[in-house]
Amino acid sequence: IKNDMLNGIFPAQKAKLMKTMFWIKVTDGPITIGALEIPAVVAHTLGFYGLQWGLVLVAFENVLYLKHRKQGMWCFSPESTVKLAYLYLTLLASLTALKFIWSASIFASETSTPIIPNSVARYFDRGWMLLAAVCPIFFALNGMKKDPPMVITIVNADVRK
Q1: Could you give the CA distance from residue 80 to residue 78 in angstroms, rounded to a whole number?
Q2: Are 94 and 132 in contact (CB under 8 A)?
Q3: What is this structure's pTM?
């Protein structure tokens, strides 16, 4: 995205948002765990919270970029693609929130019983894995097919100020 912004393809304001989200993704998990003195099991869970939240931010970047490029994906029109992308992002964020609630309820409960039965939570996990791990492959394949070749610009640091 930064490369596209430097070459005038992607707006600078949106690229700045992406840069901020990059640092949130990089620092979210380690800061959460490093700043607290907590039991190992809870630290492990918080680490996964950070990773899952990072994947939701990656999905947000994919959707924002797809919306900006105004390209259809596969057999869909650009408008349908954006609607489906927002549906994808909403489902992923919702399932991530449900996973957070489910796992937090285990630690919050005195009996270590989650508020959502494990038999139901397993479907949340499978749906989340489909959305977080499999669907981005289609974003990448679409990008390989439709995005213009990458133009890499090398300039002196003094020129870019």
Answers
A1: 6
A2: no
A3: 0.71
Token reading at 8: 């005038």
Q: Which residues contact 91 (CB under 8 A, 6 or more apart)?
A: 127, 131
* Closest among 75, 71, 79, 92 to 136, alpha carbons compared: 92
Q: Alpha helix (H) ranges present in the chain?
A: 2-6, 12-34, 40-69, 78-108, 118-129, 135-146, 157-160
Q: How many residues does the chain have?
A: 161
Residue 30 above 60 pLDDT?
no
CA angle 109, 110, 116 (to 5 degrees): 30
User: Which residue type does 66 have?
Assistant: L
Among 12-16, 31-35, 95-99, the least confident range: 31-35
